[in-house]
């Protein structure tokens, strides 16, 4: 009986110690506050204690559904989602910016990995129901891990009344790496500008985005990025995120795996 109990306990321990990127991030998070995990295992009352978390940034681009009468519905959807996630992960602040173009969008979110995964799952749900989706063809532009600080102090959305910039044919031939890098640079410059300006200016002044139209990613650049096949969909990213890292290779035994192969 004791041996069976021990085997069961060992099996449960192995199941708990997952090997995906998600589990590695979770292990890092637990290292920052091991006391909470211990209290949780002991059944103590400290389980609700605020837990430190690693800060990550997700940038998603996509098309706004052409059937959507009011683009502000997208902003309203994420306002409700952010409130829900704040209640569920009360220690994980949800900050960022949602830019709504005439037909495209850019969404920047800074929070914990759990919150970012929840946002991607929400987008995955939209992909599964395209007829009722607010966003079509969402793609993950970049995910940045372990940030030192935030660019955004809160979450907000802005409906942009900007014409699409027409690019030259030369731009159309640029590789995906150049397009992604240029887009990311503009987004980070915009975030840095908003952070600095909000600290130094009156909140009632002219809307900040209208002051720096040169820092807004052109809408046709977003269209070009979405036409490429290199960017992952939310479903593809989540599949990779939850895939074990210690996969077995045909050439031999991967260190740490439990399924060795003969060379």
From TrEMBL:
GO MF annotations in UniProt: blue light photoreceptor activity; FAD binding
Cleaved signal peptide residues: none
Region (Disordered) residue spans: 1-47
Compositionally skewed regions (Basic and acidic residues) per UniProt: 1-17
Domain spans labelled BLUF: 55-159
PANTHER family referenced in this protein's UniProt entry, alphabetically: TESTIS-EXPRESSED PROTEIN 47
Protein name from the UniProt record: BLUF domain-containing protein
């Amino acid at each position: 009986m004791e041996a069976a109990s021990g085997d069961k306990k060992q099996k449960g321990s192995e199941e708990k110690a997952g090997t995906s990127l998600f589990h590695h991030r979770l292990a890092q998070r637990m290292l920052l506050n091991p006391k909470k995990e211990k209290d949780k295992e002991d059944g103590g009352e400290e389980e609700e204690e605020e837990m430190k978390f690693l800060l990550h940034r997700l940038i998603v681009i996509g098309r706004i559904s052409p059937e959507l009468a009011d683009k502000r519905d997208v902003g309203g959807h994420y306002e409700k989602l952010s409130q829900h996630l704040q209640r569920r992960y009360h220690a994980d602040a949800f900050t960022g910016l949602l830019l709504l173009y005439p037909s495209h969008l850019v969404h920047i979110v800074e929070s914990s990995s759990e919150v970012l995964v929840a946002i991607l799952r929400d987008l995955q749900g939209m992909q599964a129901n395209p007829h009722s989706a607010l966003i079509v063809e969402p793609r993950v532009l970049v995910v940045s891990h372990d940030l030192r600080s935030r660019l955004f102090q809160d979450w907000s959305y802005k409906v942009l009344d900007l014409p699409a910039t027409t690019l030259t044919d030369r731009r159309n031939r640029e590789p995906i790496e150049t397009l992604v890098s240029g887009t990311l640079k503009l987004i980070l410059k915009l975030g840095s500008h908003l952070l600095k300006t909000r600290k130094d200016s009156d909140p009632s002044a002219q809307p900040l985005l209208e002051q720096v139209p040169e820092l807004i990613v052109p809408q046709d650049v977003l269209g070009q990025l979405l036409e490429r096949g290199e960017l992952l969909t939310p479903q593809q990213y989540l599949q990779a995120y939850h895939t074990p890292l210690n996969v077995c290779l045909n050439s031999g035994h991967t260190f740490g795996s439990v399924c060795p192969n003969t060379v």
